[in-house]
């Protein structure tokens, strides 16, 4: 066994060195994010490796210091102390950058936090002449001087400031990052305390490598920011890079490229073949746009990101877009043709908040195809205003749901056989004090995006049950109220129990409720069928809403407990405009399947009479009434009852 000269125990330090080398080499040979935190983390690893190496070397050389030149002895020991100080500072710098702590501390306080490290470095460098940190004397050899404790003061200071940054940004950090930052700082504190307790055991490097492993596994592993299909940067990587650029005010621009026939290509060619093609397309983007970082957001959406303003190279960018995206892209390896839409996104249009910026990009992905067809290849202020409007609607909707200010309006459903109004459709309405009346198609889409659609559905159903309980429209001949269920609600495994509880609270029988589901809801048929059967046991019935608006699957439809089909307004309007003669055949088909038919979009007496002759059981539209508030609907029912 190798005989060490000093009395120190090197086991922990020796164990840390190969781990550090492997991690450092692996990190350097992978493509990392081009952001400050990546460079800070690299600095942490280099400083820790240097500290460990110089610690081992200096401990041994200090035992036989007379055999080496004095300048070399000072140099080796300075290497250890510099590594110790720089490692502590880079760990703080990494934490502050990663959690945006510098911004939380403020400009001048941030500058002041660097002073202890700078002072310590200057004292270490001046040690050969000033004997501030350590010294060599002919009698004692190496010994620590009076200002030696400053290296521990710096360590404690930077751990404290790191934790301060974490707590100042606590609400803005995700749980994984919070735990990681707390854990590696606690590990560093434990390492220092144990070093003081076991003075002859070199444990500092070991605990430092543990802290580095915490950072690597939680935030700095390159695979966390790499898409597995395309091997490009993913959306998380863009959020980190974009955050740094937005916070620092660094100008940048993007090119949004989306495969607008992605879903059809996936269904046609299969997942494996399309994934291979996406990889080829991603590499083609990297070759075609060498100055850009390429990100894959999923579902055929790519983003090209480059530092600098769009206006600085506008002509070349637009020429490149026209050349590369002006036609379908075809892979020779897999024989797949992809239709690409692309738009240039200048940096001045980006919201300052990264979450809103990502939402803005997602919006552009959905609009790129339409914008390109209209001849637009540059994202405009108008696009930004639309997204800003959606943000305002999101805020207003969230406030309305908290205040339970969502209303339910009712539109009558006319029975052809009984020649009177026997039902109504409940429709969500919402008026904001600042934005005014917001169209349902706008706030429902926002609710689906934010996940508020479940709460919106619950509150609308609560309004319906409250209306049935207080106004008792059944005494005026109302037999049912149709309530819409969104696809997201149909995915809720607790849907039946939640709605049943609301009905029971208002002493309302489910026999008065007819739930309307859309064709999109049929995608998860097993879960939907389970919820439908539970509600059906309570007495509820089901209708298929907007038939003809999407890709209708009659097989799935006939296998579900649906008693009624509502023909979409577009189908009805098209027939009366002479565009589609298939409406009578559809009515006949559903009648033969023992289903009742509701025709939506009835606007004239002629339409009402024609649809009745065609065989429709019920009719709904502006010819009878627009959606009205509960009190107005009761008045309408009373009038309708007198006429009947």
Features:
TIM Barrel; 25 helices; 8-stranded mixed β-barrel; 4-stranded antiparallel β-sheet; alpha/beta; 14% strand; Alpha-Beta Plaits; Rhopdopsin 7-helix transmembrane proteins; elongated
Provide a concise account of the structure shown.
This protein has 644 residues and is α/β, with parallel strands linked by helices.
Overview of the structural elements:
With 644 residues, this protein is of the alpha/beta class. 56% of the residues lie in helices and 14% in strands. It has 25 helices and 18 strands. Strands 9-10-13-14-15-16-17-18 form an eight-stranded mixed beta barrel, surrounded by six helices. A four-stranded antiparallel beta sheet has the order 4-5-3-8, with helices on both faces. It is elongated, with a radius of gyration of 34 Å.
- Give the fraction of residues assigned to helices: 55-70%
Terminal CA distance: 107 Å
Biggest sheet architecture? 8 strands, mixed, barrel
Supply the CATH class of the largest domain. Answer: Alpha Beta
* Alpha-beta content class: alpha/beta
Q: Identify the CATH architecture of the largest domain.
A: Alpha-Beta Barrel
The averaged pLDDT comes out at 87
Number of strands: 18
| Number of separate structural domains | 3
Helix-strand layout with pairing:
Elements: H1 11-28, H2 36-61, H3 70-98, H4 101-105, H5 107-113, H6 115-130, E1 134-137, E2 141-144, H7 150-168, H8 175-197, H9 204-220, H10 235-248, E3 252-259, H11 262-269, H12 271-288, E4 293-298, E5 301-307, H13 314-325, E6 329-331, E7 336-338, E8 340-345, H14 354-373, H15 381-403, E9 407-415, E10 420-429, E11 431-432, E12 436-437, H16 440-450, H17 453-471, E13 480-485, H18 487-490, H19 495-505, E14 513-517, H20 525-537, E15 541-547, H21 554-558, E16 564-567, H22 569-576, H23 583-592, E17 596-599, H24 605-614, E18 618-619, H25 630-643
Parallel strand pairs: 10-13, 13-14, 14-15, 15-16, 16-17, 17-18
Antiparallel strand pairs: 1-2, 3-5, 3-8, 4-5, 6-7, 9-10, 9-18, 11-12
Helix pairs in contact: 1-2, 1-9, 2-3, 2-9, 3-6, 3-7, 7-8, 8-9, 11-12, 14-15, 15-16, 17-19, 19-20
